[in-house]
Specification:
Distance between the termini: 24 Å
Shape: globular
Number of strands: 13
Number of helices: 5
Strand order of the largest sheet: 6-5-8-3-4-7
Order of helices and strands: EEEEEEEHEEHEHEHEHE
CATH class of the largest domain: Alpha Beta
CATH topology of the largest domain: Rossmann fold
Radius of gyration: 18 Å
Helix content: 10-25%
Largest sheet: 6 strands, antiparallel
CATH architecture of the largest domain: 3-Layer(aba) Sandwich
Number of domains: 2
Strand content: 25-35%
């Protein structure tokens, strides 16, 4: 089975399934775990793209899900040791995520295909500051964008507003705080919804229009690009808040999880 994806010259290229090997597993939060995959056929991808993962039972039943790539785009695609990272949140009612959390081990082989998606990606030439808004595992494509920006000669100002239940639930928390300490062009704000925030600049409530106004003040100008990722309800609230703050609809791109 394969799918088509547009290439830079406007043609279509086949995206084939391949058997990726789980090289390592890292627990990130109480509900989110990173799985690193070694690809027999490494591929070029852009920050924000995703892959499809397929599980097949002994009786032939299969289930597929899409997961955003967390790792920064790799430049050495011919390197046989090239890996991609998927950070998968356990959803109790799901078919695929509980299997990963309960069954998958290092050296297991998983059917995977990608890269997929071309709408929700870091711009090749940003037209101005960038605002990232995420919740829970909705951070995954956004961390790929941040990692990409931090590994390139990119002076684009970036602000991230990230919502989580508790400090312990903040995905890649230490990495994000380290970026803010080292990079003057990056601003991090956390919206902690079920306990008081630990940092003075963070918020102790759900995302709202007033909060977005404060985050926009961290940027030197209104953002030219806005990326919002999370559950359907979260994305609706965040997008409405961005519009209310005066951001043009054309600048806002969204990706929704759990639909």
């Amino acid at each position: 089975m394969s799918s088509d994806t547009p290439t830079t010259d406007g043609q279509s290229a086949k995206i084939e399934w391949q058997s990726a090997v789980v090289s390592s597993i890292v627990r990130q939060t109480p509900t989110i775990t990173s799985y690193f995959f070694r690809l027999p056929q490494p591929f070029a991808y852009r920050a924000g793209q995703h892959v499809d993962v397929r599980l097949t039972a002994p009786d032939g039943y299969s289930a597929s899900r899409s997961y955003s790539i967390a790792s920064s785009p790799c430049k050495m695609f011919s390197d046989p040791s090239a890996e991609i990272e998927l950070a998968i949140e356990r959803l109790e009612e799901g078919e695929v995520s509980p299997f990963f959390h309960a069954v998958v081990q290092e050296n297991d082989e998983i059917a995977l295909r990608g890269p997929l998606g071309g709408h929700f990606v870091w711009p090749e030439k940003p037209a101005g500051p960038i605002l990232l808004i995420g919740s829970g595992s909705g951070l995954v494509p956004l961390i790929s964008m941040l990692r990409h920006a931090c590994r390139t000669d990119n002076d684009t100002p970036v602000a991230l507003l990230l919502s989580a239940r508790t400090r312990e639930d903040v995905l890649y928390r230490d990495e994000l705080i380290a970026y803010e300490e080292k990079l003057r062009r990056f601003s991090l704000r956390l919206a902690i919804t079920r306990e008081p925030p630990h940092r003075d600049k963070d918020f102790g409530r759900r995302i709202d229009a007033g909060m977005l106004g404060e985050v926009l003040g961290d940027l030197p100008a209104m953002p030219a690009h806005v990326f919002i990722c999370g559950s359907n309800g979260f994305v609706n609230i965040a997008a409405d808040g961005a519009l209310a703050a005066g951001l043009p609809a054309a600048a806002i791109k969204t990706e929704r999880y759990g639909e």
